[in-house]
Amino acid sequence: MALQGVLVVLLVGCSTTYEPHLVLPPAEFNRSIDAAVEVHPFVAADDLLYGHSNYGVVADDYTNKPPSQLTQSITQQVTAELAAQRVFRNVSTYDPSPDLILTGRIERFFEHDRRKL
Predict the structure, then answer these.
(1) Mean pLDDT on 43-54
(2) Contact 43/71 with Cβ under 8 angstroms?
(3) Whether residue 41 has pLDDT greater than 80
(4) Single pTM value for the model
(5) In 3D, which of 38, 36, 40 has the Cα closest to residue 90?
C-alpha cells in the first residue's frame, strides 16, 4: 500500500503535461460587480509565437504545447475562476449585450521546472 503511494508520487513528479491553473481569493463580503462580462480569447504576443521568448514549462526534457493552446487554457481558467468567484454578475464567452469585454495579450507565461528527487 505504501509502495503504491510512492509510485503515484513519482509518476506525478515526472509528468510531462502542464495546464495552467488560476485561483482567485474569495470576494470580500461576497459582493460582485453588477456587470455582464464577455471574455474574448487571449492571444500570445509575437515573441511567444515566433520562439523569441520562453513560455510554458522551461525544462530539458519537456515539450510544450503550441502557444495558441496555452493561451486557450489560460483564457478558460480566467473565465472559469471569475465566474466561480462571482466577481461579476455574469461571465461568459458570449453575451448578446455585455457591459464589459475582457481580452488580453500574453507577453510572458512560463515556469522553470527544477525537479528534485
Answers:
(1) 83
(2) yes
(3) yes
(4) 0.68
(5) 36
Nearest to 99 by CA among 32, 34, 33, 36: 36
Q: Who's near 68: CB < 8 A, 6+ residues apart?
A: 44, 49
Other beta carbons within 10 angstroms of residue 59's beta carbon come to 15
Closest to 84 measured CA to CA, from 49, 32, 45, 35: 32
Residue 1 has pLDDT above 50, yes or no: no
Length of the chain: 117
For residues 57 and 95, is the Cβ–Cβ distance under 8 A? no
Could you tell me where the beta strands, DSSP code E, fall in 21-94?
33-39, 43-44, 55-58, 88-92
From the list 53, 55, 62, the residue with the least C-alpha distance to 113 is 62
Indicate whether 5 pLDDT > 50. Answer: no
Query: 10 Å Cβ neighbour count for 83?
Result: 15
